[in-house]
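Fig. S4 source data, part A: sequence.
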Amino acid sequence: MPLRKTDAPKPARAAKRSKPASGRTPRTHDQHELVIISGMSGAGKASALKAFEDLGYYCVDNLPIGLIEKFAELVRDTLEVERAALVVDIREGSRLEELPKILRSLRHSQRTTVLFLEANDDALVRRYSETRRPHPLGRQKSVKSQLHSERDRLKPVRDMADVVVDTTKFNVHELRSFVTERFQAGNRDHNLLISCVSFGFRQGVPDDADLMFDVRFLPNPHFIPKFRPFTGRHPQVAKYIRSFPQTQEFINRISELLVYLIPHYIREGKSYLTIAFGCTGGKHRSVLIAEEVKKRLAKAGYPAKVVHRDSPVVK
């Protein structure tokens, strides 16, 4: 997910604070919002900023840290801009150390949200390899080494973030969808990106799972030769797994538990929830369960995506 550097637009002109226009109700400072996007290089900040722009935010990329408070003042005092978003990251160099202090000051004067994007090193290295762009810290060291330095320097900013998003398994569209759902006006507190993941314990457990369930207690279709070439998405395999009473009871109980938990996670401010289901090879039982739980959550009003980590493309 390559970063895109755009030219910083001219700041909005501050409106006069004398007499408001006839029929217009003056906005209070609380009605103005500033979102500061930071995070790892290659984690998708440019894509996120574009999503904010599509939501009607006034957007600036790579604004010098010395101008942030002045920019925030313009946003706070103008009638023309109600919501703004800006990107501040490792490109600021040594001045990045000043950002936590500035953030603390801004939070006292207006509604400020810090969004921090990150991804694991393997994903970031792969993205740099695909785009063939140099890391902002230079070419003197390997990309992986520069990423370690960047992560250390950004830690104080990450610690102050209101929302931290791991984009390791996001594509551009999923990241834009997350930003849209999370920050759309009037919809800020009711969105949680839910992923139902199937996996095989043979290949190791997912390191990003928030909740993990072992479904190896269900009868294994692998031992029926005619089912081996297929996955849990094949109608005959799915019918076989569903034919056991413990399968339906498990789906019912887990779905009820999740429908109970999700509102509490949303209220806590959780941004994304990864629910992992594991069987031996990640091909049959876990695939069926992930698909079924996704359907149950959708019926309850919680859309989710399904990721079959270890399942082949064939159904």
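Fig. S4 source data, part B ends here. The longest strand covers residues 111-118.
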